[in-house]
């Protein structure tokens, strides 16, 4: 509503809405110009819409969406008081290890082949580090269960055509993986596109780029693989919050928690953690 307005202070684009809202005086957020312009004094659980357009969503599957929080339960309630959101949820486990890098957005300048090769090297570094974190010595030899978890995690659980991954999609990933290897200088192979189904390779590459952009590969304390926000770190807590389709990464802050962002954690994206919980959801305070 106010995005296109020519306010000289961006904070006024938000504060003006509070002024015209019928219940504006009752809202927990009131105009305060002491807060920096880039934060507006909002708590961590309020989405940063200024940055959300740069981070691809993990909730892309329209026909069969993720449901990490489990089925709807009308007895569960959210409440807000003094900028603190109290939400039912489960605190699951901590991040044990995380990769050192995520993919950055690249802009093509000059030769296409060079651009593809440089982009492939960036992806190869991310893939190699992910492989090292899983302690799997080689992609071709790990046990089938962990191998399946690995390639499904690298693709974030779904494809670019908005459908859940199926077992036959592993062949697509294998083609992509082999294609990436030719850009590895240690293998002394010559980069060539001959003999590859580039449509298949590109479909997987697009998804890997989407999931790895602004996110880092991680391993949880129990050995689960996943993707966390770039700002996440070891010791942050994986949680499932009621009403959230995907898990949420939290960081302890006093007696409450700061929201770091949403994440993909293999094996708990469809309510498995809620179903296996030994105790009901607790109220978690988010600041």
Describe it.
With 287 residues, this protein is an alpha+beta fold. Helices cover 28% and strands 19% of the residues. The protein contains seven helices and nine strands, in the order ααββααααββββββαβ. The protein has helices at residues 11-20, 49-52, 112-133, 144-154, 169-181, 198-212, 272-276; strands spanning 79-81, 84-98, 215-220, 225-229, 237-241, 248-253, 256-262, 264-265, 282-286. Strands 1, 2, 3, 4, 5, 6, 7, 8 and 9 form a nine-stranded antiparallel sheet that branches. Strand 1 and strand 2 form a beta hairpin. The two termini are 27 Å apart.
Radius of gyration: 21 Å
Q: How can the largest sheet be summarized?
A: 9 strands, antiparallel
Number-wise, the strands total 9
What is the strand content? Answer: 15-25%
Q: Considering DSSP H and I runs of 4 or more, what fraction of the residues is helical?
A: 25-40%
Between the first and last Cα atoms, what is the distance in angstroms? 27 Å
Count of separate DSSP helical elements = 7
The residue-averaged pLDDT reads 77
Q: Which quaternary structure do these chains form?
A: single chain
What is the 3D form?
globular
* Low-confidence runs of at least 5 consecutive residues: 137-141
Order of helices and strands: HHEEHHHHEEEEEEHE
Structural class determined from secondary elements: alpha+beta
Pfam families: Het-6_barrel
InterPro entries: HetReg/Transcr_Mod
């Amino acid at each position: 509503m106010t995005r296109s307005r020519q306010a000289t202070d961006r904070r006024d684009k938000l504060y003006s809405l509070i002024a015209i809202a019928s219940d504006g005086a009752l809202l927990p957020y009131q105009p305060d110009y002491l807060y920096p312009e880039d934060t507006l004094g909002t708590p961590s659980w309020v989405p940063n819409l200024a940055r959300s357009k740069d981070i691809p969503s993990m909730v892309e599957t329209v026909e069969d969406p993720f449901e990490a929080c489990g089925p709807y339960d009308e007895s569960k309630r959210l409440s807000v008081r003094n900028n603190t959101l109290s939400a039912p949820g489960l605190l699951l486990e901590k991040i044990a290890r995380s990769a050192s890098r995520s993919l950055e957005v690249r802009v093509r300048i000059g030769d296409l082949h060079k651009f593809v090769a440089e982009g492939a090297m960036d992806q190869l570094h991310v893939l190699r580090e992910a492989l090292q974190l899983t302690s799997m010595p080689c992609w071709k030899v790990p046990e089938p269960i962990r191998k399946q978890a690995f390639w499904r995690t690298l693709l974030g659980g779904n494809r670019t055509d908005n459908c859940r991954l199926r077992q036959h999609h592993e062949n697509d990933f294998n083609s992509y993986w082999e294609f990436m290897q030719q850009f590895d200088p240690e293998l002394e192979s010559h980069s060539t596109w001959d003999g590859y189904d580039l449509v298949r390779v590109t479909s997987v590459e697009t998804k890997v780029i989407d999931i790895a952009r602004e996110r880092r590969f991680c391993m949880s304390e129990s050995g689960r693989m996943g993707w966390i926000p770039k700002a996440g770190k070891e010791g942050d807590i994986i949680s499932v919050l009621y009403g959230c389709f995907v898990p949420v990464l939290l960081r302890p802050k006093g007696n409450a928690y700061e929201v770091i962002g949403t994440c993909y954690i293999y094996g708990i994206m469809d309510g498995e953690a809620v179903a296996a919980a030994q105790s009901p959801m607790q109220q978690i305070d988010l600041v």
